Hints:
By secondary structure, the protein is an alpha/beta fold. It has 3 domains: 6-149, Rossmann fold (3-Layer(aba) Sandwich); 159-313, Alpha-Beta Plaits; 341-577, TIM Barrel (Alpha-Beta Barrel). It is 47% helix and 22% strand. It has 22 helices and 24 strands. The strands form 5 sheets. Strands 13-14-16-17-18-19-20-21 form an 8-stranded mixed β-barrel. Helix 2 (45-55) packs parallel to helix 3 (71-81), helix 7 (192-199) runs antiparallel to helix 8 and helix 13 runs parallel beside helix 15 (428-439). The model is unreliable at 1-7 and 580-589 (pLDDT under 50).
Amino acid sequence: MDTTNDNKIAGTLLYVEDDLDIQKLVIHMLAKKFPQLTLLHAENGKKGLELFSTKLPDIIVTDIRMPIMDGIQMIKEIKALDNDARIIVLTAASDTDFILDAVDLGINHYVLKPIKIEKFVAAIEQCLESVNMERRLRKQNEEIRLMAYYDTLTGLPNRQLFNELIHMALAQAQRHNHNRLLAVLFLDLDRFKVVNDTLGHSVGDKLLQAVAQRLKQCCQRDRDTVARRGGDEFIILLPELDSTQEAVKVAIKIIDAFAEPFIIPDHELFIGTCIGISIFPDDGTDGETLVKNADMAMYRAKEGGRGRYHLYNQTMDAHASQRLTMENSLRWALQKGEFILNYQPEVNIESGKIISIEALLRWQHPSLGVLPPKQFIPLAEENGLIIQLGEWVLHAACTQNKAWQNAGFPHVRIAVNISPRQFQSHKLSDIIENILAETELDPCWLELELTESVMLQDMDTTIRTLRRLSDLGIHISIDDFGTGYSSLNYIKKLPINTLKIDQSFVSDLTVNSDDAAIATAVINMAKSLRLNVIAEGVEVVEQVKFLSSLNCQDMQGFYFSKPLPAIELPQFLRKPHWYNKHSKSAVIH
Length: 589
């Protein structure tokens, strides 16, 4: 038998022998043959039993005839403590009865005196092999258990273990007649996909690990559980609460903790989160219901913006049902021709001319009426319908612009918003080229509006795609500028023509110094980079005057015109100077 690897395993051997001279010789021999072993020794069965109880050796080598407590009695006591203990007996050939008693007790080997070294070493090696095998099996079982119950990336409990833990926690709560509450917190990470796509999955993995540690720090009670549900979703179990407010405090603590950056090698990442909370027993009496309701509450929190929490309430079920109904209706809406485009002009107040017209999607829902994009675009993004819908918008907008041109109206650009998922399809350039060819619209009369987050998801691919579109003569704009990353680094790299200042900064710029400062900075930056700049959401003359004083001449908003059906827009197109720059007021509203 080859024990070259097996007998090198570290372990502990206890040698019990009352003859101290023999004990010394055997210990010396064992130390030489098995340097990896920790050696213990005792001079009688009683001390041997004490050492076994405290040190738990892997192998026991013992004599039979000893004072105070002989080897047979010690073996009985050891077997009572650990029936699997590995025991080698050293005894004289004349001690037949003792040998039989020892064998009946379940010893592994016996070696006759005088000791033959080869047999003694072989007996120890066999025991070491058994130790090694048991440890390997124990390690494999532990690895299997970890794989079954723990997330391999973060080390947190996984979904299966969480389900078992919440089942036990609910059983305990129900035994207390619902006198103690239990909370489930559900959360995911804002813009995590952007991190993965722009910085790579290795950075994304490190971020998830850092998030796991920070969540654990926010849940410091031993009975609390932080688990990874999958992807960038985490779930927290808070048992034995006295009030709902305790769960709210944990949610606020987590949101505050996420306000601090996550430091990943070579990166400082700001990642927000929204949290949904469900409470036992009011929001559910089983784990599945509590998790579902916490998830639902999280999505309601997201609707209010980033860095928020929301407690579940029963009205969310109706909201979720409505959402499902709308999603089902959305799948047929395109085929039924329920989508329409409205158009809103973008004007230059110095020349009084329309510089472009933005195509804005609306859904004429058969029972809910006309719906704005925010009520259905997120659903279309989630289920992938945005690809078909976006293609329809491009085709319809280009067709309409070409029709206006053929009718003799002044040529202006038609601006179309491109969604993140639409841009990531990697077929956008081909689709647009085909649409331009079909509609016979010159590329210079098409403008594509993209948000900052779309730009950053895969910089190399983004640059290639935008350069191809720009080379065709298509105008490229960044929409809602200032609400995302706003980095000069990417602006300089991309072939863009226009920055559109988000309306959130325009609405209060005459009364809010921070918004005014942001608008001023964006305008100055755009001018220094030789980019056009358009202010969105202009509604009052004071905003027009303020923006004009900053040398921002291109504007869009209700002050000039609300979004109009295609049939109503020609009233603007017929008058190339429809805006009276001297009175600073629109001729037509």
